[in-house]
Amino acid sequence: MIIYGVAFLALCTLAGLFIGELLGKWMGIPANVGGVGIAMLLLIGLGSYLGKRGLFTGKSEQGVSFWAAVYIPIVVAMAAQQNVYGAISGGPMAILAGTCAVVVAFALVPVLVRIGNREPDAVVTTKSAG
Amino acid sequence: MYESLMKVITGYGLISGFAVIGLTMWVSYWISDTFTKGRLHGSAIAILLGLVLSYVGGAFTGGSKGVVDIPLLSGIGLLGGAMLRDFAIVATAFGVSVDELKRAGYVGVLALFVGVGSSFIAGVGVAMAFGYTDAVSLTTIGAGAVTYIVGPVTGAAIGASSEVMALSIAAGLIKAILVMVMTPFVAPLIGLNSPRSAVIFGGLMGTSSGVAGGLAATDPKLVPYGCLTAAFYTALGCLLGPSLLFLMMRGLVG
Lengths: 130, 254
Known about the structure:
The complex is a heterodimer of chains A (130) and B (254).
Chain A: H1 2-27, H2 35-52, H3 58-69, H4 71-79, H5 84-88, H6 92-123
Chain B: H1 2-11, H2 13-36, H3 42-61, H4 75-79, H5 82-92, H6 98-129, H7 135-146, H8 150-158, H9 162-190, H10 195-205, H11 208-218, H12 223-253
Helix pairs in contact in B: 2-3, 3-9, 3-11, 6-7, 6-10, 6-12, 7-8, 7-9, 7-12, 8-9, 8-12, 9-11, 10-11, 10-12, 11-12
């Protein structure tokens, strides 16, 4: 049933965010530590485990894939409620600081991609089983 | 008649949100096909349109939530709010390849630290150029360039003035908006085309809304890889900002 997929997605999201909250409290920082990322890992891990046992297929999958499919419209709705006006009226310093941060980060992407490519050659994949 | 229409539209906010955003998507894909022959993704145009509308909304109402401050469009706030956004981001992980993630794991963590560090330095550099000299203001503005959450969290922890905190939030917002807008154009130049590069991109940029929007407009297949690392970025920034980065700045400028 489709609701099984939606409920499974909901449980993974809540569990991930809960772990993220606990990690934040434990580390003493006022932020959710990777909650969404942990939820994604839970979904990947539990999803493939249940899938292999034939407990998560067909109709149930549709409950997850619907939400993945409406992701872009949701992001558009998110864009429409950013404080663009406030950001731009923050003045030249704020604009320049944000711009520099983005330009530097863009420039670093190919640098790190190259490091990433060399890395597996050196270590090979001896540890992937552990 | 007008009153009844308003009652339905505002009372059924989320539903109105679906309708308005669906229409926006349709217009955007039409613009993409007719004027750019599909070269510029429909989703990129839609996000751009959303940002422009939110500017108009902000200028019009003086509020801080873009289009959502217009009562007729308040349902968009539900649709694009943190709850459904996170729910949908988690759902995108369903098609993720575990092998690709494993291959990128180590560089992803490295990217997070490099990303927080480089954004912070960029922000501090600009603040210095604009004449700030005290460690508290420099750290807060630098943290704002990390994300618009890290800025005020750091500023509050080290006692920055509210004016500096507002600047740091603005810097972070500019970053998020630029990442959304620029990513589809810059992607071919920086080799952002594989799951691994998306993991690195997410770690370097970090702003969840920026990464979510930027990757959606570039290639939806890359979204989960980037969002996965970006999910840890703000927390890392909040952890390092008031501690290590502040102590470093205090050591540097006294």
